[in-house]
């Protein structure tokens, strides 16, 4: 019997890579606007936001501050109330995507790649966002709820989700995939671990730390600015056709 050919994996970060913002940030802001989180929640990341916005601080510090604010205020929130706000966020932002990465995901899907999404935003909202793009598997932070449907503040599988390389290796092993011909797309230094594992790493609109790593390793760098998409560096191995 002929052995079934393994699917190649294509792994994408989502926030800032496909989605033109952060699902976690948009969700947190909406939870405040809807009165689920108190207005005082913004105080926890206001300073980091302004430093980043004024180019005096980095994005990673800002997003970490938002995560901290989210995880503090999610405790005691009803899951159904949370899901109702998440649906509104998805309905409003469903088309807020980058053309290059959206089209790349659709192209790879047609080529029978296994599409894997890895994000540090809540899994539920990431799953719904990625589902319409044809992703096969989605990893994100899983916030636990108790028997009454109330968020406890605990995060399941925290150590696994924090390490995107471990997530990728786990998915390849469990789903019977292959790294042969594999593609990875990310935008910050948190994506470096999984970009090291794939054959065709793509740094999309990278921040400075990822940009420096890409130059050192001769990874492909793609920039999408307004209606222009251009490449800064050739890929590490061979010529890319996407």
UniProtKB/TrEMBL annotation:
SUPFAM superfamilies: HAD-like (SSF56784)
Entries under InterPro entries matching the protein: HAD-like_SerB, HAD-like_sf, HAD_hydro_SerB1, HAD_sf
One of the Pfam families matching this protein, by short name: HAD
NCBIfam families (alphabetical): HAD-SF-IB (TIGR01488), HAD-SF-IB-hyp1 (TIGR01490)
Name of this chain's protein: HAD-IB family hydrolase
Assigned keywords, A-Z: Hydrolase, Magnesium, Metal-binding
Any GO MF annotation of the entry: hydrolase activity
């Amino acid at each position: 019997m002929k052995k079934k050919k393994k699917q190649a994996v294509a792994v994408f970060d989502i926030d800032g890579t496909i989605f033109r913002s952060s699902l976690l940030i948009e969700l947190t802001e909406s939870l405040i606007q809807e009165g689920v989180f108190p207005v005082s929640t913004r105080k926890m990341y206001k300073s980091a936001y302004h430093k980043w916005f004024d180019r005096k601080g980095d994005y990673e510090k800002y997003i970490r501050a938002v995560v901290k604010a989210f995880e503090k205020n999610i405790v005691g929130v009803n899951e159904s109330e949370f899901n109702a706000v998440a649906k509104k966020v998805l309905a409003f932002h469903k088309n807020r995507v980058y053309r290059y990465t959206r089209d790349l995901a659709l192209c790879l899907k047609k080529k029978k790649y296994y599409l894997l999404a890895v994000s540090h935003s809540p899994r539920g909202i990431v799953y719904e966002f990625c589902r319409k793009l044809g992703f096969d598997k989605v990893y994100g932070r899983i916030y636990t709820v108790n028997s009454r449907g109330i968020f406890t503040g605990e995060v399941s599988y925290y150590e696994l989700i924090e390490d995107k390389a471990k997530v990728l290796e786990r998915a390849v092993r469990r789903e019977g995939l292959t790294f042969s011909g594999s593609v990875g797309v990310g935008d910050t230094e948190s994506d470096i671990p999984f970009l090291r594992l794939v054959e065709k790493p793509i740094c999309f609109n990278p921040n400075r730390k990822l940009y420096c790593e890409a130059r050192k390793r001769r990874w492909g760098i793609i920039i999408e600015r307004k209606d222009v998409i251009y490449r800064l560096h050739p890929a590490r191995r061979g010529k890319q056709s996407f």
